[in-house]
TrEMBL record:
One of its GO terms (molecular function) is pyridoxal phosphate binding. This is Phosphoserine aminotransferase. Belongs to the class-V pyridoxal-phosphate-dependent aminotransferase family. SerC subfamily. It is found in: Cytoplasm. Transmembrane segments: none annotated. It comes from the Bacteria. The modification N6-(pyridoxal phosphate)lysine is found at residue 192. It comes from Campylobacter hominis (strain ATCC BAA-381 / DSM 21671 / CCUG 45161 / LMG 19568 / NCTC 13146 / CH001A). The keyword Transmembrane helix does not apply. Residues 4-347 form the Aminotransferase class V domain.
Length: 359
């Protein structure tokens, strides 16, 4: 079987052993004679999968009972409006704009008609960095995106603040341990680093879910889903099953601190290659804001011709997903958990050859 090296930004590569396990038990889950996607979400068999996945999220991040773990639908994108609907408390919500995904969240805050403020932005420098800022102590919440998938910037650590922090962590979920202490809620579509598309993981401090007003639709209240164990309606059973397998794999690798070690090594290798060949390649993000997950870069001369050629030749060499996002152009290598150090080495070798041939 011929498997490509997958540098896609999302949906993205899943470890072969996870896919194989799903394949092995697809027709008959645990020898029961039915597939996991063929049974009731209310059955004991499925509930075990659900609770096992929820527990793994708790164990990996290490938080207690004051937080709820939810598996929702509607993508990370629905959270852009669900957050202000549920967490706005009549004061002010503060946002930090670090690119397309926070821009969208800010737009939805506006549509909701809440009192919001953009307290910092890196738009002037084409979102090449995480700006400096401080959230007001009494803000209803402070909103950030911890990893900016398109521009390739990432918070090195969660900002300190007294207000509840809300974090869009779609593209760095399960990639590193985080300090949960001032987090009110973090969330993300799991298709970047945790499985197939169709599930949004939401981790929320339970007391914050009580803020919701009575004009918010029932299904869009976190409170509803906490009470219903994420099964207020039929959840994405197959997605939750796949997430559970992915989490099992992460735990088997040694958990988030081991995953972070690997991700740090992978990113260091790729960034140092870009820096060493700086007459040919140029990274988009400022060094201090570089993402461990998404590495966006350009070719310095003749980019409009050479960048598409790079992507095409990489594909011929069995590497897919390297085309930059349409908003930024250029090249982007997403090096999520399923991408190995070996895979990155192969990419770096290719980059060297390409630079020699075309430089
Ligand atoms: C991909 C992505 C989203 C959007 O996710 P959907 O599940 O497609 O709605 C939001 N935020 C970030 C940071 C992302 O990377």
């Amino acid at each position: 079987m011929n498997r490509v090296l997958n540098f896609s930004a999302g949906p993205s590569g899943i470890p072969l052993e996870v896919l194989k396990k799903a394949q092995d038990e697809f027709l008959s889950f645990q020898g029961k004679g039915y597939s996991i996607i063929e049974i009731s979400h209310r059955s004991k068999v499925f509930e075990e999968v659900l609770h096992s996945a929820m527990q793994k999220v708790r164990d990996l991040y290490g938080f207690g009972d004051e937080y709820a773990v939810l598996f929702l639908q509607g993508g990370a994108t629905l959270q852009f409006s669900q957050v202000p609907m549920n967490l706005y408390n009549g004061g002010v919500a503060e946002y930090v704009n670090t690119g397309n995904w926070t821009n969208k969240a800010i737009k939805e805050a506006k549509i909701r008609g809440i009192n919001y403020k953009v307290i910092a932005s890196s738009e002037e420098t084409k979102f090449d960095r995480i700006p400096e800022f401080h959230f007001s102590d009494d803000a209803d919440y402070g909103y950030i995106c911890s990893n900016n998938t398109i521009y390739g910037t990432e918070y090195k650590e969660m900002p300190k603040c007294k207000c509840p922090l809300v974090v869009d962590s779609s593209s760095d979920l399960f990639s590193r341990p985080i300090d949960i202490s001032n987090i009110g809620m973090f969330y993300g579509g799991i298709q970047k680093n945790g499985g197939p598309a169709g599930i949004t993981l939401v981790v929320i401090r339970k007391d914050l879910a009580e803020r919701v007003r009575s004009d918010v639709p029932t299904i869009l209240r976190y409170k509803t889903q906490i009470e219903a164990d994420s099964m207020s309606n039929t959840p994405n059973t197959f997605g939750i099953y796949m997430l559970n397998l992915m989490l099992e794999w992460i735990i088997k690798q040694g958990g988030l601190s081991e995953i972070l070690k690997r991700n740090t090594k992978k990113a260091a290798l790729l960034y140092s290659a870009i820096d060493e060949m700086s007459d040919f390649y140029k990274g988009h993000a400022q060094k201090s804001s570089r993402s461990l997950m998404n590495v966006s870069f350009n070719i310095t001369k003749n980019g409009s011709e050479l960048e598409p050629l790079f992507v095409k030749e990489a594909e011929k060499n069995g590497m897919i997903g390297l085309k930059g996002h349409r908003m930024l152009g250029g090249i982007r290598a997403s090096i999520y958990n399923a991408v190995t150090l070996e895979n990155v080495k192969t990419l770096v070798e290719f980059m060297k050859e390409f630079a020699e041939k075309n430089g």
